[in-house]
Write a structure and sequence with these properties.
Elements (H helix, E strand, L loop, with lengths): L1 H22 L7 H25 L7 H17 L8 H15 L13 H12 L8
Helix pairs in contact: 2-3, 3-5, 4-5
């Protein structure tokens, strides 16, 4: 009996949530609001990425702090959203050093054991318009 009451309560809650969710539409966000939000948040992401590289023990890049920031910068350029590029040179240098370390098969303690990380780092180099090289 108790299991039936719990099941009925959960089913009723799910049904009410679906009904209410269908009636309310999210407000339309203006394009200019999105542009202002990106222009405001991108410098914070850049600063966070710079601090991560300085504070990390190997002075390496971070997927979230650096690589995703580079992808946001690339999309911002494509969309015509202005921002100050103060960090890409340091980010590229840290990424190249990290790739040298990751792709060296002679190092027994490879700090990035996951195989998709180097490819993910290459996305950042592409986003920063880094020309292809031997690595």
């Amino acid at each position: 009996m108790r299991l039936k009451i719990i099941s009925l309560t959960l089913l009723l809650t799910a049904a009410i949530t679906l009904i209410i969710g269908w009636k309310t539409k999210p407000p339309h966000t203006a394009t200019e609001d999105i542009r202002r939000s990106i222009a405001k948040s991108l410098p914070l992401l850049q600063l966070s990425g710079a601090k991560f590289i300085v504070r990390s023990s190997n002075h390496c890049v971070s997927c979230h702090h650096n690589i995703l920031t580079a992808l946001v910068e690339e999309k911002s350029k494509i969309k015509g959203i202005a921002f100050v590029d103060t960090f890409s040179t340091k980010r590229i240098q840290a990424n190249i050093l990290g790739l040298h370390f990751v792709s060296n098969p002679n190092l027994p303690d490879n700090f990035l054991p996951v195989k998709f990380i180097p490819a993910y780092a290459l996305l950042q180099l592409h986003a920063d318009n880094y020309p292809p090289d031997a690595n």
